[in-house]
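Hi C.,

You asked whether I'd gotten around to modeling the 257-residue construct. I have! Everything is below, sequence then structure, no commentary in between.
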Amino acid sequence: MSSIILCVTEGEKTEVKVLERLQAEFLDKPIEIICFGTNIYQLYRKVKDEDIEFLITYEILQEISQERKGKRDDVLSQYSQIEIAEIYLFFDYDGHDNLSDKYPECIENMLDIFNNETENGKLYISYPMVEAFKHPVNKEEIYDISQGSKYKNYVSKICPEQLNKFINQPLNKRDWSNYFIEHMKAINFLVRNDFSYPSDYLYINKSFTQVGIYENQITKYIKPKNHILVLTPFALFLIEYLGETLFEEWAQLALTT
């Protein structure tokens, strides 16, 4: 019976630890994690020539899992394909990478290929990288793409201390919620020019899509300014996974913060 949530991450540490913490505080299903170990442009090279109608994500992930064996266990050897209920992929925007110029169509195409967690899988993008979840959000938090991986050190200096220490000193559900609410406001600002918690849950499914977020990043920040609006995908992932119950819970919490 399908029951496993399979998460594919770019890195081996931060993304894994975040997902493990979110599983403990929010989710009621087991999560298994495969680390791809490099960026989205390298993954794109693996799938760009595939016939999408016949793409079998499970087989690609098996190959990845076997390649990474030794750094993490060969996760998929424990399961058959039918046991995998949903697949989620978490990658950085990485607009500073040399391959971003070679494959300018990468993000758009990957979001088109990986747009459904029960089919090929669903892709979530961190802007500019996974450490965005630490970034204090007050409204229009932007970052210069050309600064690249310097973002890690930058955000570690400006974020709340408990986010730097979240691995050894875990945050509780309310802590995560308070931080993620601000990122939901930022998405609302990006899409609707309104820095507030979204008022309508139905609007989430309609307009807060990964494609919509990327298109707004392109038109408002990336093309005209070579910047991005800092956003973590983990907030929207939880809302989309847990639905209106969590949306309303955060709406009430947003009124008190």
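If it helps when you're writing up: The chain has twelve helices and seven strands.

Thanks,
B.
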